[in-house]
Write a structure and sequence with these properties.
Radius of gyration: 18 Å
Helix content: over 70%
Number of strands: 0
Structural class: mainly alpha
């Protein structure tokens, strides 16, 4: 099927571009949520200082990668 081209020679985004966009969108949304939820849960159990920062960073990286991967797969399927 031919790709539609706009009046200024703009092509449609590819499936890979959709997946990149889904990954970045999932990463940003999960990062914002984990800053709030991770900080609250770590403070609630009594963490403070560098231990708090290390735990939040670890939680954010683990959940962000998982959620963004699923979001990228979803955007690829939707395309």
């Amino acid at each position: 099927m031919p790709v539609a081209v706009g009046p200024y020679r703009q092509s449609q985004p590819t499936c890979f571009n959709h997946m990149k966009m889904g990954f970045m969108m999932g990463y940003a949304v999960c990062m914002a949520a984990e800053v709030l939820l991770g900080t609250f849960s770590c403070l609630r159990i009594g963490m403070w200082g560098w231990k708090l920062m290390g735990s939040i960073r670890k939680i954010m990286m683990q959940t962000d990668v998982i959620f963004s991967t699923f979001m990228a797969i979803r955007m690829g399927i939707q395309y």
